[in-house]
Amino acid sequence: MVRLLSRLKTEMPEDSATSQRRVVIDIRGITKMYRMGEVEVHALRGVDLKIEEGEFVAIMGPSGSGKSTLMNILGALDQPTSGAYLLDGVDVSKMRESELARIRNQKIGFVFQNFNLLKRTTALRQVELPLIYAGTSSRSKRAKAALESVGLGSRLDHLPSELSGGQQQRVAIARALVTEPAMILADEPTGNLDSRSGTEVMQIFQSLNRDQGKTIIFVTHDPWIARHTQRVVMLRDGVVVSDSPVRKPLIAGQDERPSEADEMQSVLNSAYYGGDPSEYN
User: b/e map of 180-189 (b: 16 or more CB within 10 Å)?
Assistant: First the structure.
């Protein structure tokens, strides 16, 4: 698998000066309120967030924290009640649904936990679909290149039922990449995979980020997955309670997964207690 990913390096590169990188996501004072009968549910309560080109970010939080709502807004699947959301320099917070559909197709690559593949459609055709919707030429050539980039060049004509779970998720990643979006938004992308397939998929994401500079956002509840990214944003009760870099991102396939308790403690140490120990004395 490693040979398929342009030789994964053993160390993550140092970040370049962030001031030189383009801001892909700029969220300003986002709120989201749902009305359930006479009850108002405030899912987001004034979220500010900036993500720059080339970042690999995990968004975490317990059930009810607002992370799914934030994911829907980031993916232009829902709009905020108030506040502004600039995606790749375009304010999408007040767009009509037809405009949002165009933005989703052009600027966001989605990867879902359940793959979301069509049962009777070949891998090549699955990856062509976003290009068909966009009216793009050279669709087969671009779809084939995307599948080859995730190690599926020999599986172009296979149906989902003929692919393993890990291979299906790689088809989904190729589909997300083929339009060359501003960012990839992944919702629990390893959640339905066994440990080996999950590691292979994480290797692909790390390679895409490191070698191609892709901007990737993971929405996850899994601390172990979050430690493979460069930055963890934690939500609770609709607000950001922590936004910190991961001091030593894990390299997929090189570290054995610890116990669940150790995983959570590691994320807490990194997100909440990172920095100079003297600050906490």
Answer: ebbbbbbbbb
